[in-house]
């Protein structure tokens, strides 16, 4: 009988349970994805170019696990708020506390396990998609990869089972120990709102001071290093709490005193609701703001590393393709690249000297990278004249980097075309190519690089060289792509959980708000004004942590100047993606809340 009543209660709140269930599914799916990638040993051993990304995905799993734990606490609180009145009614009808505890335990654990199993299946599909994206981004062929990982699946199920087991035990004990009247009248219990004026003013000052100190530390991280990270972490967390507990309430009190604003439509009611909510939701809003900063920061930095691949590659190499003994290469393959620069330098060599033609360097100057102390400035190509190349050793060393290993120890001499023709030595060619779009032509360039190694056996013994741009690109692509995918999916997971936590917190207080909106309806307030008030109220609760989180990110990106040339490059892309998803959660929350607090007029 109890189970039938329980199922009826769940069915009546199916919409709320689906919101809870979807959040848990997404959390377990992304957790599985990270674990399956990091624990696939056969895949990692057979693909050494991306084996280094394992630490990235392990880090993502740890961070995701910590946030998931906090998320489940709030989701669990929402679940209990929805059901505690039902449990109290069962007790009043004669149900024993042991049976109620058993039912609560089973409900919580079964919902959690089902969400984990569904999430793991979704995670397998998500891992398969990420696998294809990873291959496309890294431009490598990988083997022994399977979206299904028994190790990752077991870790995911074990981790979430432990979390839901603990949550089920806490739920069962917390409900059974409370008196029946306390459970029934929980939403009618008044909240104490007293606050000392001096302490209120002190919180305002401390909130602004803490954030200023934290932002200063992040902006000068090179100077303060680890101390700066520690101080920034503490002061920003404290500052975020004080901002929500004092500064926002102070701003709302000023708006309430402005009659031209407060007395317009339902603004005074909305401001009063917000003042009450923000005091009650201080911890929640602070956590959401920090998670918002982590999520948006992860997404921004992840996509930022994508932009770094080309920048770092270009800073190392001038030419997109180097061909030694180019006379053996089919030049039609080079023509397919549509080169914007195709420099060919004739060579002759004896035991001590490499000879080049001066006129060829006068016609097509040799290029080097012009170094800059400012990392934000992309290095430019600098032309070296034949005279400079003939007389300055540093420029000859740059040319020597493109020669074969056995040629590099030899002296370089530039002579006239006539003198070069008189040398009775074998003639070879060094061809240096630049293309218009390197990434578009990468596959064709890699084929020519492989041909170059085949034509020059000495290069086959060299595992890696900074002279071939394709090698440099693939190396940095393998490292940075891991950060990109971790940032994208970790940001998605954080966003799902922070928005769900805020949604659950707002919806859990909807029953107590229902009385207030009923009163406004009875005195003749139009339905349109009530809906407008709801949109504004929930909009502020979503917007306030969002704005503070954005400010955290804008200052926090300063820390990544040590790793990235310009962490603010193309900032609008991650911000747009994030705010679209965040806005969808706002719309869903507003729709659910409106359906609860406003009765349909007949």
TrEMBL record:
Residue intervals of the ABC3 transporter permease C-terminal domain: 61-173
Record flagged with keyword Cytoplasm: no
Transmembrane annotation, as ranges: 17-34, 54-79, 100-130, 150-176, 197-218, 224-255, 284-305, 485-507, 538-560, 572-598
Keywords attached to this entry: Cell membrane, Membrane, Transmembrane, Transmembrane helix, Transport
Localization: Cell membrane
Lipid bilayer topology: Multi-pass membrane protein
Pfam family, one: FtsX
PANTHER family attached to this UniProt entry: ABC TRANSPORTER PERMEASE, ABC TRANSPORTER PERMEASE-RELATED-RELATED
Similarity remark: Belongs to the ABC-4 integral membrane protein family.
Full protein name: ABC transporter permease
């Amino acid at each position: 009988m109890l189970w039938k009543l329980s199922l009826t209660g769940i069915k009546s709140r199916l919409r709320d349970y689906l919101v809870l269930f979807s959040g848990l599914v997404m959390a377990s799916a992304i957790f599985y994805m990270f674990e399956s990638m990091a624990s696939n040993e056969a895949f990692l051993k057979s693909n050494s170019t991306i084996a280094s990304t394992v630490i990235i995905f392990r880090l993502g799993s740890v961070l995701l696990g910590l946030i998931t734990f906090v998320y489940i606490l709030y989701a669990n609180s929402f679940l209990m708020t929805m059901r505690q009145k039902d449990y109290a009614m069962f007790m009043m009808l004669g149900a024993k506390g042991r049976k109620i505890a058993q039912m609560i335990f089973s409900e919580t654990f079964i919902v959690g396990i089902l969400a984990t199993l569904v999430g793991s299946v979704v995670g397998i599909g998500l891992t398969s998609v990420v696998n294809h994206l990873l291959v496309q981004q890294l431009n490598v062929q990988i083997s022994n990869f399977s979206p299904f990982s028994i190790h990752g699946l077991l870790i995911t199920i074990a981790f979430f089972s432990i979390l839901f087991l603990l949550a089920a035990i806490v739920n069962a004990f917390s409900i059974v120990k409370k008196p029946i009247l306390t459970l029934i009248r929980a939403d009618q219990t008044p909240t104490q709102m007293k606050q000392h004026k001096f302490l209120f003013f002190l919180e305002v000052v401390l909130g602004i001071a803490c954030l200023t100190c934290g932002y200063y530390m992040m902006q000068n991280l090179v100077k303060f290093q680890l101390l700066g990270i520690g101080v920034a972490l503490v002061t920003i967390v404290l500052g975020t709490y004080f901002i929500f507990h004092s500064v926002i309430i102070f701003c709302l009190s000023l708006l309430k005193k402005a009659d031209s604003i407060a007395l317009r439509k339902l603004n005074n009611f909305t401001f009063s609701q917000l003042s009450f909510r923000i005091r009650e939701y201080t911890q929640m809003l602070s956590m959401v703001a920090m998670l918002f900063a982590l999520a948006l920061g992860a997404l921004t930095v992840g996509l930022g590393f994508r932009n770094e691949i080309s920048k770092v590659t270009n800073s190392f190499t001038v030419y997109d393709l180097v061909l030694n003994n180019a006379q053996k290469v089919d030049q039609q393959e080079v023509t397919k690249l549509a080169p914007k620069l195709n420099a060919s330098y004739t060579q002759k060599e004896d035991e001590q000297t490499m000879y080049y033609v001066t006129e060829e360097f006068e016609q097509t100057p040799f290029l080097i990278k012009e170094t800059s102390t400012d990392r934000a400035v992309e290095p430019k190509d600098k032309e070296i004249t034949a005279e400079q190349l003939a007389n300055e050793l540093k420029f000859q060393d740059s040319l020597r980097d493109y020669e074969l290993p056995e040629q590099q120890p030899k002296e370089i001499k530039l002579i006239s075309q006539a003198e070069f023709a008189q040398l009775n030595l074998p003639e070879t060619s060094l061809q240096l190519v630049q293309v218009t779009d390197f990434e578009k032509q990468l596959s064709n360039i890699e084929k020519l690089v492989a041909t170059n190694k085949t034509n020059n056996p000495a290069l086959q013994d060299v595992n890696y060289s900074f002279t071939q741009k394709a090698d440099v690109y693939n190396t940095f692509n393998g490292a940075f792509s891991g950060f990109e995918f971790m940032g994208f999916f970790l940001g998605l997971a954080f966003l799902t959980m922070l928005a769900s936590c805020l949604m659950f917190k707002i919806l859990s207080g909807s029953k107590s708000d229902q009385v207030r909106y009923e009163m406004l309806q009875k005195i003749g307030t139009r339905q349109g004004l009530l809906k407008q008030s709801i949109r504004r109220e929930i909009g502020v609760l979503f917007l306030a942590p969002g704005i503070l989180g954005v400010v955290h990110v804008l200052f926090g990106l300063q820390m990544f100047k040590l790793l990235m040339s310009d962490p603010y490059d193309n900032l609008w892309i991650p911000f747009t993606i994030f705010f679209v998803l965040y806005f969808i959660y706002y719309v869903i929350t507003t729709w659910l809340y409106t359906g609860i607090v406003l009765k349909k007029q007949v």
